[in-house]
Amino acid sequence: MPKCSFTLRWIDTVKLPDQGQTDYFDERTTGLGLRISSAGRKSWFVMYRHAGRLRRYTLGTFPALGLADAREKAKALLHEAALGNDPASEKQVKRGAVTFGQLAEQYIELHAKARKKSWKEDQRILDHDALPLWKNVKAHEIKRRDIIALLDKIVLRAPIQANRTLALVRKLFNWAISRDLLEINPCAQVQMPAKENKKDRVLSEDEIVKFWITLSSASMSELSRLCLQFQLVTAQRKGEIVIAEWCEFDLNNGWWTIPSEKVKNKLSHRVPLSPSALSLLEKIKLISGESRWLFPSAKGDKPIRDTSIDHALHKNEALFQIPPFTPHDLRRTAASHMTSLGVSRLTVSKILNHSESGITAVYDRHSYDREKRAALMLWSDRLLDMAAAKQKCR
């Protein structure tokens, strides 16, 4: 395809093809092209790549869209493509007066899958309530009253789930607005339909001991038992524990390095392994065998589902004879007790791998390794002391 430096004079005087059309490309603006037909029609377009495929996007016709404006539009579109977006696909959806189903598909493919480890939960929420109702409805036709009617239906069976649905649908519509697919978010000024309970469950020392001792007789798999104990000992996220692989562990030096792609804040995280944690890992290895996963599923080369840990704990609530709690409460419990033992809140935050701001957050990943190890050793010793004291009283 011929290239030249586009000028207004050249565009006005360029020879028309004898038949069909000819594409020319601008030497100054990469990807910008001008298609000229034998009938004299001149239309701007941009060529770019998305997911390895060459894509074409029509900008408009000349002279309605001038040269300078065409170059600016081309640069903006190429910037979007460089970010991983597919402007041509989004334009096709918009041209067809996007339905909610199409909008949901675009959101999952272009946003959720690329940015959220929990995108499958977004898909599940949409599939369960929103899509059965609105899949073929034009997105711009959905009004605030429709949002409220959906939430009223959900809140009768699952109040907190109604909140989650509203949050997701609101985010989906905001994303559509940011992509110029819609102009109005029907979720605006819609209140959360259910009152959220503050998540602040922390097990007392007596409850920890009851849980730890009774766990051996609980009706659950040995891997589920070990997973719960490992979470209490290390204070790490359940989701990062169940997908852990043996290659992440340096057992000789006592480190677990969680890779960035598995971490919520996308920054790799080093977890010191206390003697209690190392002991649990030995037991886990006896069960996991040659699997690359610490907690392998019985169905193929994959880890167990993190929800299976929640189900196992819920199933045995009555056995523990303490108020109900979740796996995440074990993480919060470990953090709270470390603080009560005199560990600084900053060190606990480093152990929990909470998100930080500022450039030092990137370069300061390992500066607290010594403090983290000391804190988790202290917590390990305290757990052993609590269990030993309980055994003496029995």
Q: Could you characterize what this model shows?
A:
It is a single chain. The radius of gyration is 29 Å and the shape is elongated. The strands form two sheets. It has a five-stranded mixed β-sheet with strand order 1-2-3-4-5, covered by helices on one side. Strands 6-7-8 form a three-stranded antiparallel β-sheet. It is an alpha+beta fold and 394 residues long. The N and C termini lie far apart (87 Å). It is built from 17 helices and eight strands.
User: Which strand order spans the largest sheet, edge to edge or round the barrel?
Assistant: 1-2-3-4-5
- Largest sheet geometry: 5 strands, mixed
Report how far apart the termini are. Answer: 87 Å
Unreliable runs, pLDDT <50, ≥5 residues?
none
Q: Overall mean pLDDT score?
A: 88
Q: How big a fraction of the residues is strand? A: 5-15%
Number of DSSP-assigned strands: 8
- By DSSP (H or I, 4+ residues per run), the number of helices equals 17
Helical content, roughly? Answer: 40-55%
Q: What would you call the structural class? A: alpha+beta
